[in-house]
Amino acid sequence: MTRRVSAAWGPGGDKRSTITLSVSNYHRGSVSILRVNTDSEHPTPEGFVRLALPGEAAAIAEIQRRSWAGDADTGDLVAELAVDQLVRMWQTAILRPPLATFRVLVAVERTPGRERVTGFAALSPSSDPDSHEADDAEVEEFVIDPERRGHGHGSRLMQAVVDTLRADRFTRATWWIRATDDRLRTFLTGAGWDADGAHREVGTDDGSIRIKQIRMHTGI
């Protein structure tokens, strides 16, 4: 039997059949470029967040694949994900989003002569049945490259998410997380998020993978 796996986020995608992976490692921090090492011989990479560029779709897709590969629930599905399909999906999300408030952000690490995408977030108006489209936004994806965690990229990306949603005049942010992800839930609760009582189950169409999720929310 062929199993169809829906990509985690894409404009107009059916969220009821998606698998959403959330990565902890977040903390509030500055969105601006971080410079902390004045040693010119061993410079510390600069980290910052901005809107994704079309040419970064492949890097985003690769980070997404690596994240799925390291997950106990989705690791076996990585081989079934077509890389070119993921790349096209992210190119479309960046170039032709259905609304201006569908946004893809990237965390970037800059070293002399090189910029590297180290994570990404995908934001959209919430499509939950009980949401108010003009006020409620959703963090659809938030992934830091497993190879670059612990370097502050998650903190900058998290702050950029909040700043972006606020600039787009949303007043409430929601985030579906795995019901068993106690680490992420603890962090979000400490940052002012809370469970609002909503829950759902997502997974593959053939039912081989089912993931229970709860919805967190916060005023912004």
Question: Summed up, what is this model?
Answer:
The protein has 220 residues and is α+β, with helices and mostly antiparallel strands. The protein has a single domain (15-219), classed as Aminopeptidase, CATH 3.40.630.30. The protein is 23% helix and 29% strand.
What characteristics describe this protein?
seven-stranded mixed β-sheet, 4 helices, globular, disordered N terminus
Task: Count every helix, treating DSSP H or I runs of 4 or more residues as helices.
Answer: 4
| CATH-assigned homologous superfamily | Gcn5-related N-acetyltransferase (GNAT)
Task: Based on Cα principal axes, name the global outline.
Answer: globular
What is the CA–CA distance across the termini?
Answer: 44 Å
The helix content is 10-25%
Question: Do you know the CATH architecture?
Answer: 3-Layer(aba) Sandwich
Q: What does the average pLDDT come to?
A: 79
